[in-house]
Amino acid sequence: MSYGDVAWQVSRLWLGPIAIALTRARGYGLERIPRSGGCVLAITHLAWVDIPIVGALSPRNINYVAKVELGRVPLLASFLRWHGIIPVRRGESDREAVRLMRQAAHDGRAVGLFVEGTRQRSGVPGKAQPGAAMVALQEEVPVVPIAVYNTQRWRLGNFAPCSLAVGESMRFDGLAKNGRGYKEATAEIEQRIRALFDWLADVHARGRPRGETPPL
C-alpha cells in the first residue's frame, strides 16, 4: 500500500463525510467503477467541489490530475501530494504529466481526469480534451464516464444538493493509437458524459429518487 492510499484512507474518515454532508451528495451507478485495475475516470468539472464529491463517493482511491499551480499553495501542496495528485501544466504539452498518467494507469490505478481541462463556468459540460482518450488507448485501459450535476449552483451558504452519475466503462481497443484515434474516442466520451449530465438534470427535476440507473 502506497502512502497515497494511506492518505486516502485517513481522508475518507473525516473529509468524505464532511463533503457528503455539505453537498448532500448522491451517486448513481457507482457500481460501474471498476474495483481494481487501471482505468481513467473521465469527469465533468463545473466547480471546485466536484473534486471532494467524486473522491468521497468513489469506491476507488483516485490519482487526480490537477493544475500545477495548486502545488504552489502552502499546506494544500503537501495535502495533494500525499493523495497522489498528478500535476499538469495547462495550455502546453506536458510530457512528464502524460508519463505519470500513463504510469498510474499501467500500475492499476484509477486516474481521475477532468475532461474539459479546466472548470466550466457556463454551467454545462464543455468540449472534452484528448487526455483521457490518449491514456486509455496507450495503456489499453477503460474510460469510465462520470457527470457531476448541480455543483454549478453550490456555494457556501447555498448548499444545493449535488449528484453524480457513472456510465458503463468504455473501451477503444479497435482505434488507432494516434491523433485520429484520440479524436474519435474523445468525441464518444464527450457524448456519453453529456448524456449522463442531461439524465441527472431530469433526475433532479424529479426530486432525486433513489435507485435510478444512469444510461449507458
Question: How would you describe what is shown here?
Answer:
With about 220 residues, the chain is α/β, with parallel strands linked by helices. The protein has one domain: 3-Layer(aba) Sandwich (Glycerol-3-phosphate (1)-acyltransferase), CATH 3.40.1130. The model has no long low-confidence stretch (mean pLDDT about 90). It has helices at about 5-25, 50-55, 75-80, 95-105, 130-140, 180-205, and strands spanning about 25-30, 40-45, 60-65, 85-90, 110-115, 145-150, 165. It has 6 helices and 7 strands. The protein has a 7-stranded mixed beta sheet with strand order 1-7-6-2-5-3-4, sandwiched between helices.
What's the end-to-end separation, in Å? 33 Å
Number of continuous helical runs: 6
Gyration radius, rounded: 16 Å
Low-pLDDT runs: none
User: For this structure, what is the CATH homologous superfamily?
Assistant: Glycerol-3-phosphate (1)-acyltransferase
Order of helices and strands: HEEHEHEHEHEEH
Biggest pleated-sheet summary: 7 strands, mixed
| Silhouette | globular
Count of discrete domains: 1
Give the percentage of residues in beta strands.
15-25%
- What is the overall pLDDT average? 91
